[in-house]
Amino acid sequence: MSAPTTPRARRGPIANLNPVAKLGAALLIALPLVLTIDPVSAAVALLLELPLLAAAGLRWREFWVRTLPIWIAAPLAGLTIALYGATSGEVYVEWFVVRISEGSLQLALATFFRVLAIGLPAVVLFVTVDPTDLADGLAQLLRLPVRFVLGALAGMRLLGLLTDDWRALALARRARGVADTGRVRRVLGMAFALFVLSIRRGSTLATAMETRGFGGSGPRTWARESRFGWREWMLLAVGAAISAAAITVAVITGSWNFILGATA
Amino acid sequence: MTPALGVPAAVEARGWGWRYATRHKWAVQDASFRIAPGERVLLLGASGSGKSTLLHGIAGVLGGDDEGEQTGELTIDGEPAARVRGSAGMVLQDPDSQAILARVGDDVAFGCENLGVARQDIWVRVRDALDAVGLEVPLERSTSALSGGQKQRLALAGVIAMRPGVILLDEPTANLDPAGVAEVRDAVRRVIDATGATLVVVEHRLDVWLPLVERVLVLGSTRDGSGVIADGSPDAVLRARGAGLAAGGVWVPGIPPVFPPPPASPPGELLLRAESLVVSRVRGTAVAGPLDLDIRAGEALGIVGPNGAGKSTLGLTLAGLIPPEAGRVSASAALSAGEKESPISWSSRALLTRIGTVFQDPEHQLLTTTVRAELEVGPRALGLASAEIGQRVDELLERLRLAALAEANPYTLSGGEKRRLTVAAMLATRPRVMVLDEPTFGQDAATWAELVAIIARLRDEGAAVAAITHDEKVLEALRARRFAVGADR
Question: How many helices (H) and strands (E) does chain A have?
């Protein structure tokens, strides 16, 4: 059975803001952090993000469940860098290809904070985004092509059906007596069958959209207005401020390390 | 009050024909008729006569020159149908692929947006449309949480919110349970009474739609000539053409399909037993049970119940394809023949000769590129000698009238042919228990009679048949013992 896609109503000052603003804020925060690799900028950004995360309207349990992958990825990424990252300064441990040095530990710390500082706001802001509202925003505010935005939106709804299809394909193969061996080949066959089914469903959906006048030549109106008011601008400003603060502190403390420039 | 939910429009065809770019044969040829504004028309024809193509043509969604070739003219109020998109609204057969947006209100509004209706008017229209089809759910309700009948009424609401002059219905109830069929039919009646819109319905179940229409158009097929071969009041057309239509697969009232003879002998030994069985698709989410059930050789069992009651899940569990949530399914010694007691523990190969399954959607089961190869899959998995395989396959091709299609690609077959193919593929390994999920769903009368005859013969040869269905006639024809799952809503 496909899960209903309508999210529950959420509380929290940010939850009901325009998705385009959330997208913008997440990008503003991420931008400087992907341009530098140092512990300070990411740590500052992470610290300043905390109120933002709290205001997003997620319940505690939901917060941890949704962000769990990031909490796992961040230390793992850090650990990898610590063990194998570029060596500099004093070397603490050396064993086979593993070399833990002052420099690699610093890079590890930077990576750890960076994954959290980019990942947490991105996930938290997007959990509260309704796809329909995002499509409205992208088409009405950013003027992205209507065909593309609404086509993608409607197509996304087929994903639930495809999950059901995939399950049925697997069961049908057991019923046909071919599920005991040749796993790789079987999965490839199922993938092809799913491809055929999805094209068929897609073309029915396209016909359904056309019968409702989609793709006609006349002007299109919007039943839901995508609003971008002072709150949305505020969110963008907060994103920009976090970004600016992170850069400033990093530059002042001398840890700014532009990723495209010469490495220290 | 704003007048009219749309102004009824006239539909006219003059020597109209259409050939899909990918086909040699014309789907419709030389069709000429005029439908007056507000007329209610049932469009009939044998399978393959191009009814659906004509309907798509009126809706203006057949596409341009790269999609196919057109002859003659097809107009709505004098304008070419392809150019006046939005003046004819259409509801399609499959309830699942028609909801375009995630929320009920947004979905109904979609058509209005495309037509450029002003925002404040859209929401008035959305509420009017939902009222008209009697869909009383919140505007924010998820469209995927609706039942089949509700989804079709939603599609209808989406159409009438556009206030079209013509409403087109392409087998809107073929995939619904009886409650859903009644829901949709009543909604259509209300809408037509309220709007006075022109109505064109394609359906092969006449009893559902005859009370609503005042005129019947019959499209010819290769056998009985091209274009419109009969046109008039339902009574007149059915009197003149009833027998021919029934032979072509249309369900004509008063001409019931032929029922197979009753079982020759009483049910035999116990093959499969379910005790305190609770079934689920996803672990932890029980959909039906606890149930107790016996399946015996030489007996047809009808598993019945409303949509969503867990009938299909029960079928898959009995068939040894998904594990029980609680309780157990056990095969008798006669069925298990050396395997363990519980079918879910059997290998996929062991299942072949013991329990066969035909899925609701045939395409989920197709594995190869020719009909013959499809039938060879099971016997090959059993490791039979090639002479034996050849013999079994030839026999089945003959018996299920697939011989002429032996080298065809299974995906290109018609709905009825695909259904026969998946039944044949199951029979190739001679299972003792057969689980069939909606074997007659959406089939025309000819295919229906054929499938029922095949199932009855298997039953009489000593197989146990468990058919999941909400087709009362199937149960009647097979003299099936009924097993009800879930309470009626």
Answer: 9, 2
Interface test with chain B among A173, A176, A194, by most B beta carbons within 10 Å: A176
Per the CB < 8 A criterion, the answer to whether B382 and B429 are in contact is yes
Do A42 and A162 reside in the same domain of the chain?
Answer: no
Residue A37 lies in a domain: yes
Based on the domain organization, do A181 and A94 belong to the same domain?
no
DSSP per residue, B285-315: -EEEEEEEEEEETT-EEEEE--TTSSHHHHH
Please report the pLDDT score of residue B221 as a whole number: 73
Q: Is A149 found in the same domain as A28?
A: no
CA-to-CA distance for B96 and B44, rounded, in angstroms? 25
Let me know whether A23 and A118 are in one domain. yes
Task: Provide the mean pLDDT of chain B.
Answer: 88
Domains of chain B: 11-247 (3.40.50.300), 270-484 (3.40.50.300)
Query: Both A84 and A167 in a single domain?
Result: no
Short-list B191, B193, B156, CA closest to B176: B156
- Indicate the range of A161-165, B221-225, B339-343, B450-454 predicted with least confidence: B221-225
Q: In what order do the strands lie in the sheet with B433-437?
A: B355-358, B433-437, B464-468, B300-304, B481-484
Are residues A235 and A129 both part of a single domain? yes
In this structure, are A128 and A169 located in the same domain? no
One-letter amino acid of A211: T
Segment 18-77 of chain B within 8 Å of chain A by CB: 56, 59, 61
* A173–B contact, CB cutoff 8 A: yes
Chain A residues inside the 8 Å CB shell of B105: 223
Other CB atoms within a 10 A radius of the CB of residue A64 amount to 11
A191 in Cβ contact with B45 (< 8 Å): no
Q: Are B11 and B60 in contact (CB under 8 A)?
A: no
Return the CA Rg of chain B. Answer: 24
Cis amide bond preceding B290, omega within 30: yes
Whether the predicted pLDDT of B470 surpasses 50 = yes
pTM score, whole prediction: 0.81
Contacts 24+ apart (CB under 8 A), A257-260: A257/A36, A257/A37, A257/A38, A258/A35, A258/A36, A259/A34, A259/A35, A259/A36, A259/A37, A260/A35
Residue A10 belongs to a domain: no
For an interface test with B, give the residue of A147, A181, A211, A222 to mutate (most B CBs within 10 A): A211
Chain A, window 174-233: residues with a beta carbon less than 8 angstroms from a chain B beta carbon: 174-180, 189, 193, 196-197, 200-201, 204-205, 207-216, 218-225
3-state helix, strand, coil in chain B (%, to 5): 40, 25, 40
Q: Decide if A167 is inside a domain.
A: yes
> Which of the residues B103, B106, B139, B144 would you substitute to probe the A interface, choosing the one with the greatest number of A C-beta atoms within 10 Å?
B144
Give the residue carrying structure tokens 């392809």. Answer: B82
- Give the count of domains, chain A: 2
Residue A7 lies inside a defined structural domain of this protein: no
Q: Which residues on A lie below 8 Å from B425 (Cβ)?
A: 176
Q: H or E element: which one contains B217? A: strand B215-219
**Domain co-membership, A90 together with A172:** no
Query: Residue B378: which pLDDT band, with cuts at 50, 70 and 90?
Result: very high
- The predicted model gives B28-54 an average pLDDT of 89
How many pairs of residues across A and B have Cβ atoms under 8 Å apart? Answer: 173
Cross-strand pairs, B97: none
Nearest alpha-carbon partner for B18 in B59, B79, B77, B78: B59
Q: Do A211 and B126 touch (CB under 8 A)?
A: no
B17: β partners: B71
Q: Which of B257, B267, B256, B264 is nearest to B299 (CA)?
A: B267
The boundaries of the domain holding residue A149 are: 145-211
- Could you tell me how many residues make up chain A? 264
- Secondary-structure percent of chain A, ordered helix, strand, coil, rounded to 5: 65, 5, 30
Q: Which two tokens stand for residue B355?
A: 């329990």
User: What is the ipTM score, two decimals?
Assistant: 0.82
